[in-house]
Please model this.
Amino acid sequence: MVKLNKIYTRTGDDGTTGLVDGSRVAKASALIAAIGDVDEANSAIGLAVLHADDATATALRRIQNDLFDLGADLATPLAIDGALRIVPAQIERLEAEIDAMTARLQPLTSFVLPGGTAAASALHLARAITRRAERQAVAVEPPVGAGALAYLNRLSDWLFCAARRANDGGASDILWVPGAER
Model:
């Protein structure tokens, strides 16, 4: 388990941060930007929990834990054996939940504007931040693990479906009307 006796260490005062293997990288690197975007997505999910129904809140808390696993995955060079990594079961669970949610949603007839209920709006915000985290993770060199990328991709889909579910199963979705404001 992690034990933090002191919050500040002063080791990052030079603009670097430590990875799991003890190496140091610039805080401005694509890797640290991706880890930061994952943290921001996790924070937005924490906000969404405040507006979510009990079942969604429970799932979101599990996802928040998964995102800490994902952060550890990103912060550990791929060459390290036995590291905490996103595993296929975590991705498959998201897929099964997406399928279950989709089966109960009204069919899409247009793109959905982010918004609707407070819960849906918070979930859409978390989805957009998750998409940014995914884009940033794809940009990391050397590449990050495929499981981490797949998890972020599925998570944004999960959050989209959960937002639609929070909008009365899609009935309260705000649909895009092309050219409506011309």
User: Anything to note?
Assistant: Residues 64 and 144 are 20 Å apart (CA to CA).
